[in-house]
Amino acid sequence: MNRRWLLLLALLLVGCVSEKGIIDKDGYQLDTRRQAQAAYPRVKVLVIHYTADDFDVSLATLTDKQVSSHYLIPANPPMHGGKPRIWQLVPETDLAWHAGVSFWRGATRINDTSIGIELENRGWQNTAQGKQFTPFAPAQINALIPLVKDIIKRYDIAPQNVVAHADIAPQRKDDPGPLFPWRALAAKGIGAWPDASRVAFYLNGRSPYEAVDTASLLDLLARYGYDVKPQMTPAQQKRVIMAFQMHFRPELWNGVADAGSLAIAEALLEKYGQAG
């Protein structure tokens, strides 16, 4: 190759370098040098589930054609190189079918805007004392924490949008249930939690178990983000309150409107704002 061609090649290469932001495709070019400001991540919500089955059955179910989730964490994750192994079943760029018919803070079709994490856990069993939920293994929660922190950071997910499956589908779901450590995770910067001092302020000396008007509590829950409809039956209203209590007042999740639940809802609204 003579010097003339070498010089031409060098000029072409310089031209390529100077065309930063121009991407060659098969049959066309993309100019990415001017990016719109009104661009937002697809992912706004992180949903936590339990599988209600063992790992092998859960993995088979979540890789079948009916349902899916982005991640599956075993009850006791195997360690590799000192790190717990987590199964990614769906790329984050793709939609997974984990939320189903759902609603949160004014939005429906939560599958479209969320990442789902399934935790291997037996869920609940009926006993003489009622529903008894299965505890989560510390190793599983320890594996969950860095994954969730990474997702929250990458998509800038607001604390109030880290939710339980029961939060977004209270009429159908209980997971991850009252034994999931929401409070401990909030202390690590994961998810929402009310400030105890503000709960006490709104409680104003009342017993937390003092009965309050159901409609007043449901109004606060609707403002915070739960799906509350005027035509709901008493049983449906109870399911919404129960979902809220399992998340934010897990020591008593009987679905009864009381002063403690009302104070927690008021403190959450003060801290995180209302939906919309």
TrEMBL record:
Keyword Protein biosynthesis: no
Record's signal peptide: none
Descriptive protein name: N-acetylmuramoyl-L-alanine amidase
Catalysis: reaction(s): Hydrolyzes the link between N-acetylmuramoyl residues and L-amino acid residues in certain cell-wall glycopeptides
Residue span, N-acetylmuramoyl-L-alanine amidase domain: 31-177
Tree of life domain: Bacteria
GO biological process, one term: cell wall organization
Keywords, sorted A to Z: Cell wall biogenesis/degradation, Hydrolase
Gene3D superfamilies assigned to the protein according to its UniProt record, in alphabetical order: 6.20.370.150, Peptidoglycan recognition protein-like (3.40.80.10), PGBD-like superfamily/PGBD (1.10.101.10)
Record-linked Pfam families: Amidase_2
The EC number(s) this enzyme carries: 3.5.1.28
Hydrolase listed as a keyword: yes
GO terms for cellular component: outer membrane
SMART domains referenced in this protein's UniProt entry, alphabetically: Ami_2 (SM00644)
